[in-house]
What we know:
It is built from 10 helices and 15 strands. By secondary structure, the chain is an alpha/beta fold.
Amino acid sequence: MVKAIRVYEYGGIEVMKWEDVELGEPKSGEIKVKNKAIGVNHTDVYARRGAAESFNVPLPFTPGCEAAGVVTAVGPGVTTCKVGDMVALAAGWHTPAYAEEMVLSADRVVAVPPSIDPIVAAAAIFKGLTAEVLVRRCFKVGPGHTILFHAAAGGVGSLACQWANALGATVIGTVSTKEKAVLAKEDGCHHVIIHKEENFVDRVMEITSGKGVDVVYDSVGKDTFRGSLACLKVRGYMVAFGMASGEHEPLRFIQAAQKSIYYTAVTTYSYIVQREELLAASKEVFSNIENGALRVRLYQTYPLSQVAQAHLDMESRKSTGSIVLVADA
Length: 329
């Protein structure tokens, strides 16, 4: 028996139960991993609230899509890793990462370089892959581009803003507090807007001399969607990749047609489907961490059993950077 978080009904943090679960041995193509650290993501919050149902995940389930740990057993046919390897997981709704140990497909893990601590790997693998998808695939950021990134001091925002800066873009970030503004500046934002103190649309237009930005990255959703559209230049790109404040209103034809904008609602999984894509993207993430181009900002670590507090910190937008659960604390 191992300990894991189980969700039997959708709802608030109280639906997450800390209990014993029976863990079988890996079947063909599977491995067993003893988790060292588990990343906390808004995806986990969405799943707990009910989004897991839309992805056909039956109740009860164990949340979690990001972790790092040691391989303790391999099933028949596994050749990509061996017992004792340190691996990182960034997968979809069906991955039970909020657990001391887990059994999963070997195709969904990647090797962690020896120079990278498991806590850093768990904090960065899913968020780093998301950042890679955003700045290298949804819209290929480069010199001369101006981008707007909401929640710039969050786990994904911290990495994506650093990455976009390194690629030569002018980076505008929005945050909620002066303290977060300092962090966003450190993470590569050339301009930081505290949205509680000033209208971000007006400020973006001032910064861009009325032209607007090439691309907006919006994981906030309902509270920022209309304003994000207003910040776009003609033929700009709107990339929606979350809904922290709730799902945004439907995009009407006239809204898109006025500026001939491009709209993409994206999940990391939709861009990293094949193992070759996962290997290439994760290699880029880890290489950038190793060479110092990306610095992983860790907000807080909690024992896995205290996941409720971690979710509270994330939902209240109190956190900056990444939150990590330590499985053996």
